[in-house]
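for the record, two folds in this file. i put them one after another cuz i was lazy. first one right below, seq on top, structure tokens after. the second one comes after a little note so u can tell where it starts
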Amino acid sequence: MSTPDGLPTDLQDRISAGRVLATRAEPYLGSALHALRTRVSPQVQTLAADRWWQMYINPETTSSWTPEQWATELRAQVRRLLFEHAERAEKFGLAEPEQLRRWQAASDSTVRSETHRAGHDSWPQPGVLVEDLPGGRVGMPVEEVYELLRLQNFEGVEPQGSSAHGVRQPWEQPAGYNELEPPDAKMVRYRCAQEAITAQRDHRPVAPDLAQWATNFGRPAVDWRRTLEAAVSRMLAHYAGARDWSYSRPRRYGSSGSLILPGMVAPAQPHVVVVRDTSPSMTFERDLLRTVTAEVSGLLDEKARVTLIDTSSEAATARRVTSRQQLAQVQRGEGTDMGAGLEAAGRARPRPHLVVVLTDGDTDWPERKPVHGAGVVVVLFGSRAQQLAAQVPHWASTLVVDKLV
């Protein structure tokens, strides 16, 4: 006998049992697990999901799976949909087959590594564990894992469903057929995020990857461009305003007979040094890095002279920036030490009035301010920006960029 969606009854029973076990293991995934729809598809090797919350199953190759195995697989599939790997792949600009294979491997690693580490089941295991990669760490987002695989020349695995990469596969149903509409999918994500946040508040266990996702999901996007512009303008007004006394003879309206009164004179065009983190950890953020740098440069084009210092473990040679095209020339290195860039900014001539540091925050900071007589703004972005913001020294202003809006 078969169910209305074409699955053998006994297989559907095991999937239902697996759904129950998955909900018991992670109750905050309940809405997502019940939103996932099943279909028969002999064209897939075992199973795969599309980006519209439909899971395609090959009954012949999955007929022996136990409810525990289904629970593990279901938890992996809904993670991929909750984390929006398809949408993120599109924003990352992936198109070539090699890129899609590598992204598939990165997606598999991020959604399966957590279950594997937790020891709930030994099956299925990801092809690559994140922490086994040089520079890998628990909780890395899919974009970072992708870049680590690229640096290792990892070929990847064959693309599966569009839930991982966004590219519709030949065996997937046409658009509009029994799919979960975007507003409904957003509501499912919202419910899961709220359940995870509530579980944390009640001191119930929540997997680290879901805990981090839920926290970020509920945070409203901030127009960081306006915030950055306000911070830069405020600091320039404070540090680069009229601040020097002069006894040079003023114009007629500023004199008092033969007595020359001291007056305030403004210095030359304000000088801003941008210290840009170009360490390996910033590779995956290359587009965001250039975008943020371009925004800083654009803000300052009419207001200040801009000098750029690319910094990894050492500071590269300072260079003046006069066009956005120059921002694409990135001087990369190994390691991360923003202190080296700040010290180089302190040696810049003319002396800077403002220093803007662009980094993911994964660095040590000097205890004392290396730049005297200048304001310092640290712009943090990346997956751990909010977490690392607390480590920025008190002598610097901090701006966290969660996402481009």
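(here's the note) second protein begins now
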Amino acid sequence: MAICPMQPEERMILKRYLYAHGFILFFLLQQLAAQSLPVQSNGADKLNQVVALRNRGEYQQALDVLAPLVHSSGLSASDAGHAWVLLGSTYQDLGKYTEAQRAYQNGISILKAQAGGERGEAAALDDLGSLYRDMGQPEMSKKLRLKVLQFFLAIGDHSGTARAYNNLTAIALQQNKLDEARKDIVRAFDELKLAQQAGSQVSLDDQAAIDNNAGWLSFHDHDYRQAAKYYDLALQLWTHQHGSEHQLTGWGYVIRGRTHLALGETQPALDDVRTGLAIIERTVGANVPMYFSARLVYADVLSASGSLHEAETVRSATVRSLQAFRRTASSDYAISADAFR
């Protein structure tokens, strides 16, 4: 059964969520582990709690802790900067882009003023770049990601450099610059190997994100078997890192299902996409772009399975929801020049 072709608007929202996401908590975990002063323990404990909640996909609970925490007086300046960045990432995950942008910029301003805060600032800029990509501003995202890349290259951090190249891959894919994407993904794998050879700890999320983008490139080249291998690896890593109830795990099922569909394996495709949709809805809800993207994949799978009427119903409802989301979530994003200084 032929798959109904997506409209350009549908393809755009799907592509944004086929690529890697900017969930950069590894640096924060390292910083929290190094905390030793008693006066900072309460704030550090709460930030650890937030990281644990986010890793389990409990975003609203994380927000309930973070929202008052960023305004409390119990945080060191460094912890306050990281708390604002975590708040921005949590808002982003929940589709609240205006709030996310403000939180990121607050965090960047605080971290920029701290002596020795360059690494934390780089992680925050990377997350802000992720937000601009999700908002459909790839050039703004690329400027930030290039700045982050230069920082990690300068300090010889192979893990950070691998992440930066992978994020640039995601932007190139979004812009359909495939030659550029292929060069960047090779660099990402090379830097990942160098980091592992040096004994550096590389986050599972970073490894999964690289496999995810490599899978997309293989999918685009119609090498669906190779794409399936990369997507399987990404799903395994996300499940190991976050468990079964997390939006990234859910997304892993969706993209694997999409590959089953390309291979003509309709029932496994239906099983995977339905599983992924349910996980995404339970963790971040049904009013976020990731969910809309997954629903568009589901419509394709339904169409291929012969459920044409249901597929059209799902597709039409998803497009309406997407349009409503854009009207409410993409009003006016003021770009702060502070991030580019």
